[in-house]
Fold this sequence. Notes:
Blueprint: H1 2-7, E1 13-14, E2 19-20, E3 22-28, H2 41-56, E4 59-66, E5 69-76, H3 82-100, H4 103-107, E6 117-121, H5 126-136
Antiparallel strand pairs: 1-2, 3-5, 3-6, 4-5
Helix pairs in contact: 2-3
Amino acid sequence: MYLLLFFMNERWKSTGHAVYNCSYHLIWCPKYRRKVLTNGVDVRLKELLYEQAEKHGWEIESLEVMPDHVHVFIRVTPNDAPVYVVSQLKGYTSFILRNEFTWLKSKLPTLWTRSYYVESIGHISEETIKRYIEEQKTK
């Protein structure tokens, strides 16, 4: 019980069986890195990303849409693998944006590339975690 009380603040979430802080920095680009995320597409993309995140119970902490790529810092649940999060965000936004901005269909065969960048983000550094695990042997 003490562990749960210690971890209960804005940084950590909890379920009946877990306390967690799962956050990712995601980056992805339009096909051929074309600069198509402008002229209203960028604004609508942001709306759609927030909408999809809310639907899944995720929290977008930070979001920036550049003309040729997207940065998202998102908090998810432990059940949501990065590949699932990215596929939900990219698939949903591609479908809607290509229907609302039909000129995207003539410019690109698909809106997004298949690739993406992901990095897990945490409050504690890698070195701190390694040191903590090593010190467990001596306790």
